[in-house]
Amino acid sequence: MANIRLILEYDGTAYAGWQRQPNGLGIQQVVEESLHQLLGTPVTLISSGRTDAGVHARGMVANFHTERDLPPAAYREGLNGLLPKDIAVQDAMQVRDAFHARYDARGKWYRYCLCRNPVRSPLYARYSWQLRADLDLAAMRQAASALVGRHDFQAFRTAGCAARTTTREIFSVDFAAEGKLLFIDVRGSGFLRNMVRVMVGTLVEIGLGKRPPEDMARLVGDGRGRAGPTAPPQGLCLMEVWY
């Protein structure tokens, strides 16, 4: 029995999120059906986590067990011949039997893209939150520094989050500007449901002057309070998972 790890890249625009579900098409379902075609037997993927509807990924990690004896390249090339154009396997490799994509993960890197432009940009509409106002980056950076460390992020999760504990560790929050694009890179040990998007929504409110930077420290200080809105999904991308 071989344990195969896949690294997947996808545009999440057309999907109801990663997870297989009864009322929408999940990316997991598409990949599992392609694996079934390739291997001739049903396969269940174990993923490093879940992305919501409209969220993208460059480095989603998933593994599965199979009795077929194929070289790893055959999984990559074979699956890419079966998958739709908005999903692709970037890498496939055989790993130790005990490897688990979710439980062995040590950290994740998410990137959120903001497009700052007075006129809407059709080219970036699928991959960014478009804002037509200036942002105070100094205030946003000040606020973001309060997120780093181990805190109670109760205020930064949305309804339906089933996590047993709301304490998480954020390693870093970095900003990078490229023309009209602003990237917010968040690295951490793990994340609650919509946690990064709520962080970004709160940072944007601070950048727009709708709340002071000090609000962020209060939100993570005791895990209570009212955070900002949940940022739109299309700006978020799972970049990498560490093991």
Sketch the major β-sheet. 10 strands, mixed
Terminal Cα separation, in Å?
A: 22 Å
CATH architecture of the largest domain: 2-Layer Sandwich
State the CATH class of the largest domain.
Alpha Beta
Q: What Rg, in angstroms, do the CA atoms define? A: 19 Å
Whole-number count of domains: 2
Report the average pLDDT across residues: 94
The percentage of residues in β strands lies in 25-35%
H/I helix tally: 5
How would you classify the helix and strand content by structural class? Answer: alpha+beta
CATH superfamily of the largest domain: Pseudouridine synthase I, catalytic domain, C-terminal subdomain
Number of strands: 10
What is the CATH topology descriptor of the largest domain? Alpha-Beta Plaits
Spans of 5+ residues with little confidence (pLDDT < 50)? none
State the order of secondary-structure elements, H for helix, E for strand.
Answer: EHEEHEEEHEEEHHE
Give the helix level as a range of percent. 10-25%
Write the layout of secondary structure elements.
Blueprint: E1 2-10, H1 27-39, E2 46-47, E3 56-66, H2 72-80, E4 87-95, E5 107-116, E6 129-131, H3 137-144, E7 149-152, E8 167-178, E9 181-188, H4 195-207, H5 214-222, E10 236-242
Parallel strand pairs: 3-10, 5-6
Antiparallel strand pairs: 1-3, 1-4, 2-3, 5-9, 5-10, 7-8, 8-9
Helix pairs in contact: 3-4
Please characterize this protein's 3D structure:
Formation of pseudouridine at positions 38, 39 and 40 in the anticodon stem and loop of transfer RNAs. The chain is an alpha+beta fold. The chain has two domains: 2-95, 2-Layer Sandwich (Alpha-Beta Plaits); 107-242, Alpha-Beta Plaits, CATH 3.30.70.660. It contains five helices and ten strands; from the N terminus they run βαββαβββαβββααβ. It has helices spanning 27-39, 72-80, 137-144, 195-207, 214-222; strands at 2-10, 46-47, 56-66, 87-95, 107-116, 129-131, 149-152, 167-178, 181-188, 236-242. Strands 1, 2, 3, 4, 5, 6, 7, 8, 9 and 10 form a ten-stranded mixed sheet that branches. Strand 2 (46-47) and strand 3 form a beta hairpin. It starts with a strand and ends with a strand. The model has no long low-confidence stretch (mean pLDDT 94).
